[in-house]
Design a protein that fits this description.
21% of the residues lie in helices and 29% in strands. It is built from 13 helices and 36 strands. A hairpin with a 6-residue loop joins strand 31 (629-634) and strand 32 (641-647). Helix 5 runs parallel beside helix 6. It binds (2R,3S,4R,5S)-2-(hydroxymethyl)piperidine-3,4,5-triol. (2R,3S,4R,5S)-2-(hydroxymethyl)piperidine-3,4,5-triol is lined by residues 331, 361-362, 409, 477, 479, 524, 526-527, 543, 546.
């Protein structure tokens, strides 16, 4: 085609109203498909875009054109009313919108018309991009969907941009919107508190809205994790039934809205929580929402979790394919009381335990205001000269001499009012200019919306790594929520604070990842208050909870395992609940990335020997536990026991962790049928993680059983003894 023809067509197109042009596309179908799920969008007669289907994969392509996209109203379908794919405020939709904009002229309504779409291959799947446009305002909305066929996962996010003369104000800006038409819906949320993370509770969804959200800003997931499940045929079950499992990649305020309308349809609206965040978007700028990641399983949460685990390790966790480092942490052993010789001796302990690394926790920095407790020092990232006269260099040297790697704790987004940083830059902290300051853990959050602060924080990490190439790992903590919400930097644009703060945090994380792609890092926030797939692009694992009482930890790990692979979850053996045996404590920690946070002097020689063996076992079994397929076999929520099995990718190796939590008198225990094995293969059954000298309790110990037998007849793994555990290794012969 000649250039002049193109120009003519473009001019003609511009003279035809957008809604009319979009209506010409009526019936156009956009299929976003995995191997098991179809999400279908259809352009309506009015040129707007509707969700016409979300469910199990449709077998016949021809059926896509017949989908009943007009769903609202009884009797005769009402034109122009349906499941609009990204519903907006101020139009004929009577329920919660995804997008709320007040235009520069004060008009609060937005109508989006289909303006084009394309599909292209991306790493692991296909990306569908859909352009929508308002017909009266220069406002563009772009929807993105990446479908990962093999893992049955879809991730979706949205761009909002405009060319109005003045800024527009965004009051709602969801990542996506999904609709369901089922007789009942049953929500599972993952809520709790410090040391009680990811407790699973369920409830039916009925007419009206249920909102799961957080307003804490930085330590955002303190009370609830950004995860949910909706059972679509009754409460979500482990191995049967249809379930939507969703999570938001946002390390800040999130909100999931579930609304059941007058017809009994459910809309799910995941996104940033717009609480105190009417966002001012300048002309020409783009507002990009966080990614919403979901899977739709028709084989219960077990299959959904396995799909999410595979997806996460392949595409969304830093170094998802690499081995993890076992470690010895000093936090619960020494707290703030340590010096160079003590740390050097702990490094030798780490070596004698057989772990890969020693991790130095809080308390190593600050000179004018030494960090000897949690009331001073954050922000002054210089080694304390009294405790550590040789600085970090002497520590990395000592670690090298001991034969272990060296890791370091930081909390870079925070500042203590008693610090040189605060004395120099009081305007770098988030706090009210005209009110009393409220502190959480005696500290303030740095104003990460300020590029100068971002540079400073990046400089801290970059400086440590440049000057000390021996630092092999970071534990990045975040112990305070945002208090006294006010950004000195944003001045009269305070509505942007919560969002721009998180973007500032990502700016630093991205720069660290780009410059140090191979440095593993643990995401921590007073336990598990940061656990999302955006941060995990930059972190190899997250700390699930400060609660390491094994009886409690079983529930916490159980909850998180619904969304995260064991490889992304850190668990340490500590002194919490010392009345539980070291074996029980270690067996629970061995289900995740194994570490220790305990003084070895607390252990007798037999216990120490047990720990050494358990570390060696974990390292040998890492391919199954970290990279294998997980089966949750017995739920602690439905019994007084818990059993979890991991099978490696070629089904040659399996590990089963069985726990007797608090069984009741004559509690009936059943044999446990295993999953995921090769039925034709013979497996040697070995009880491992035994205390030195202890006899195996498993009748099948030492025997060879076929995969078929293990899956149909099972093993007698459970007992009536409280706080005991059995670990079984299966090796195909
Ligand atoms: C909270 C973390 O969860 C702990 O593991 C420890 O690192 C402390 N912070 C240190 O202040």
């Amino acid at each position: 085609m000649r250039k002049t023809d193109c120009l003519l067509i473009a001019a003609l197109a511009l003279s035809v109203p957008l809604c009319a042009r979009a209506a010409d596309e009526a019936g156009k179908v956009i299929r976003i498909a995995t191997d098991a799920t179809d999400l279908v969008l259809t352009v309506g007669d009015n040129g707007r875009l509707y969700q016409s289907y979300l469910g199990p994969k449709l077998l016949d392509e021809a059926d896509l054109g017949k989908l009943p996209w007009i769903r609202r109203g009884s009797g005769t379908p009402v034109p122009n009313q349906g499941w609009e794919v990204y519903s907006t405020s101020g139009n004929e939709d009577y329920f919660e919108p995804a997008l709320g904009i007040t235009h520069a002229d004060g008009n609060p309504s937005t109508y989006l018309y289909y303006a084009g779409s394309r599909q292209e291959p991306v790493d692991g799947g296909t990306m569908t991009t859909v352009n929508l446009r308002d017909d009266k305002y220069p406002l563009d909305v772009t929807l993105y969907y990446v479908a990962y066929p093999k893992e049955n996962v879809i991730k979706t996010w949205t761009d909002i941009s405009h060319r109005e003369k003045k800024p527009v104000r965004l009051s709602q800006y969801a990542s996506a919107m999904l609709y369901f038409d089922e007789p009942e819906y049953y929500l599972t949320e993952f809520a709790g508190d410090w040391a009680r993370e990811a407790q699973m509770t369920g409830q039916p969804l009925r007419f009206g809205k249920k909102v799961v959200d957080t307003k804490l800003g930085s330590r955002a997931a303190w009370f609830v994790s950004p995860l949910f499940e909706v059972g679509l045929d009754g409460p979500a079950r482990e191995d049967t039934g249809r379930v939507l499992m969703g999570t938001l990649g946002w390390t800040g305020n999130f909100r999931f809205t579930f609304e059941v309308d007058n017809m009994g349809y459910l809309r799910v609206i995941p996104g940033i929580n717009p609480y105190a965040s009417v966002y001012e978007l300048k002309s020409g700028d783009t507002f990009t929402t966080p990614e919403f990641i979901f899977t739709l399983s028709d084989r219960g949460t077990g299959q959904g979790s396995r799909d999410l685990h595979d997806w996460a390790r392949r595409y969304s966790v830093k170094d998802g394919g690499a081995d993890r480092l076992t470690l010895l942490n000093n936090w619960e052993n020494t707290y703030f009381r340590f010096d160079q010789p003590l740390l050097a001796s702990l490094m030798k302990d780490a070596r004698s335990l057989g772990v890969d690394m020693f991790l130095l926790d809080d308390g190593w920095f600050g000179n004018k205001h030494p960090r000897n407790d949690d009331r001073a020092g954050l922000g002054d990232w210089e080694p304390n000269r009294v405790k550590l006269p040789g600085g970090i260099k002497a520590l990395t040297d000592a670690a090298r001499d001991a034969g272990v790697k060296f890791g370091l704790w930081i909390e870079p987004e925070m500042v203590s009012p008693r610090s040189e940083l605060f004395e120099k830059h009081p305007d770098w902290a988030i706090r009210q200019p005209n009110r009393d300051t409220y502190y959480s853990r005696n500290q303030l959050v740095l104003d990460m919306s300020n590029p100068e602060v971002q540079d400073y924080v990046f400089g801290v990490i970059d400086g440590i790594l440049t000057e000390n190439p021996g630092v092999a790992y970071f534990k990045w903590d975040c112990n305070s929520p945002i208090t006294n919400i006010y950004s000195p930097y944003l001045k009269d644009r305070q509505g942007n604070m919560y969002v721009d703060h998180v973007r500032g945090v990502y700016n630093v994380m991205e720069r660290v990842s780009a410059k140090y792609p191979r440095v593993p890092m643990m995401l921590c926030s007073s336990g598990g208050a940061r656990c999302d797939y955006e941060a995990l692009k930059h972190f190899t694992e997250f700390w699930c909870s400060d609660n390491t009482d094994p009886l409690e930890r079983v529930y916490i790990q159980w909850g998180f395992s619904h969304f995260f692979p064991a490889k992304a979850m850190a668990s340490h053996v500590t002194s919490w609940n010392k009345s539980a045996s070291i074996k029980f404590r270690t067996d629970v920690a061995s289900m995740c990335r194994l570490g220790f946070d305990i003084g070895l002097q607390e252990l007798d020689e037999r216990e120490l020997e047990f720990c050494r063996q358990a570390v060696a076992n974990w390292k040998r079994l890492q391919p199954a536990i970290m990279d294998g397929t997980q089966y949750r076999l017995v739920s602690p929520y439905e019994s007084n026991h818990a059993v979890v099995e991991y099978v490696d990718s070629d089904r040659r190796k399996g590990v089963v962790f069985a726990y007797n939590l608090a069984p009741r008198f004559r509690d009936p225990v059943r044999r446990v049928k295993l999953r995921g094995l090769d039925p034709a293969a013979g497996y040697r059954v070995a009880e491992i993680n035994l205390m030195p000298g202890a006899k195996p309790s498993l009748a099948e110990h030492g025997a060879t059983c076929s995969g078929d037998y293990l899956m149909k007849v099972g093993l007698d793994l459970l007992k009536a003894d409280p706080a005991t555990s059995t670990v079984v290794e299966l090796t195909a012969l």
